[in-house]
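Review form for a predicted model. The reviewer records the input and the model, then writes brief findings.
Reviewer: anonymous (R2)
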Amino acid sequence: MRERNYELEKIDDHTWEIPKTGGMRVPGRLHVDEDTANHLVDEAKSGADWNALDQVINVASLRGIVKASIGLADIHPGYGFPIGGVAAFDRKDGLAVAGGVGFDINCGVRLLSTPLSAVELKESKERIANTLYEVIPAGLGSEGKIDLSIKEINHVLKEGARFSLDRGYGLPGDLEYIEENGSIEGANPEDVSRRAKQRQFKQIGTLGSGNHYLEIQEVDEIYDPGAAEAYGLSENQVVISIHTGSRALGHQIGQDYLEKLEDASEKYDLPIKEKELVSAPIDSPEGQAYLSAMRCGINCAFANRQALSGLARQGLNTAIGLDEKEVKTVYEVGHNTAKFERHEVNGREKELLVHRKGSTRAFGPGRKELPSSYREVGGPVLVGGTMGTASYVLRGSRKSLEETFGSGIHGAGRSMSRKKAKSKFWGEDVEKRLEKDGITVKSHSYPGLAEEAPGAYKDVNRVVSSVHRSGLTPAVARLKPLIVVKG
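Model under review:
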C-alpha cells in the first residue's frame, strides 16, 4: 500500500481537497458528491494501481501547474491523467503533457436541432434508423467515402471543419457554432508522422467504435427555459447527437509523442511518475512539436464531425424528405484537448495551457470565445449518456470559470472496464432490453454493445444532479435516446 495520505478535506457538499503534501506543487480539488469522494478514497486505500486519486496527486506534482489538480464529477482512472481531469499550466514554466489529452484527441460532441417533434418521428422511426445505419460508416476500422491523399490530409489537419464543408458536407452556418469555429491555429502537418496520416486515408466521415455514437434524441425536459431558448431547444423536439473524435490519426499521434516526450522528460530532467505523464516544457522544441501535432488531431476531429453532420442531414433527407437546411448546429465542443486560454489566478489574468482529459470547455457568460447569441447565458456543455440513458445539455457559469478554468463534465464516467463489461453483459441482451424501452439500436458489433452497456457506467442523472446543485454547470435540458447508431 502506498504511503500517501488519502484523507480528503471537505470544502462543501460538492468540493473536496487533497492537501498539498510530498512532491505536490498544488492541492488536488475534487468536485464530487460525498458518495463519490468516499468511493475514490476506498479505491485508493485498497492499494489498486489503477485509481483516480493517485492520478490527481501525480498531476498535482507536475512542474508549472497552477491552482489545483482538478477532478470533476465523472472522474475515473485514465492513462496518466484521470478521465474527468483538468490541469492548467503557466505558459512560462509549465509543461505540455500528452497524458493530459489522451489518444482520442478532440473526441467531442456535436448537437444538431431539427424542426421535428417526437410524435412526428414515430411513424418513420424504423426507416430513419435503417437509412442512418446505411449512410453512417461505423465500427472498428470503418472507412468512409472520402478517400484522401497525403496532400489532402495535410489540408484536413490545417483547415478542420472547413475542409469537409468545402467538400459539400454541412452548411456554412455550422462554423459559428463549433468550438474554435471548427479550426484551431498553430497546426503544422509536418509535426505529424506519415504513419498517422496513412491511418486516416479513409476515416474522415466515420463514427468508429467504443463509446462513439450517433443518436436521434427527444428533448425530454427543459430545466432552464431562458438558456434553452437561446440554444434553440424546446420540449419534445427531435435533436441529433454525434459523439466521435480524431479516429486512428489521433491515436497514432498519441503513441508517437509518448515516445518523444519520454526522451524530452529525461533531457529536461522532469520526473516521470507514470508512463503517460511524460512531458516537455511548453516552449521547448519538443513541447511545441507535440502541441502542433495535437492541434492537427483537433482539426481532424472537427473535419470528421462536420462530415458526419452532413451525412446525418443527407440521411434524414433520404428517409423523410427533411430539408438539410432545417437541421441546425446547436453547438460542438471537444473533451480531450490542451488549449491556451486566459484565466484569472490569484487576482491576475494569465495565459495558461489548459489540459482537459474527458472534460468539456464550460465557459460562462461573457466569454468572447462563445457564439454571440450564447454569451449572455454561457456556452452549452454537452454531456453524453449511454445508449439506454439520458444525455444532457448544461451551461457554463461564472463559477465554472472561477473554480475549474471553465471546465465541465463530459459524461457519466465508467464504473467498470470494457473487459469486465464484456464478461458481464451480452450484446444481444443489451439490444433487446433497449428495444423493449423503445430505443431502436443499430450496431455493427454485439461485443461493442456489451462494452457500452448502460450498466457499465455511473448513473448520469446523479452525476448531472451533482454538478447542477453545485452551480458549476447548471442543467438546461435532458435528452432521451430514440435511435442509436453504433460501431
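Findings: The mean pLDDT is 93.
Further findings: The chain has 15 helices and 19 strands.
Recommendation: see findings above.
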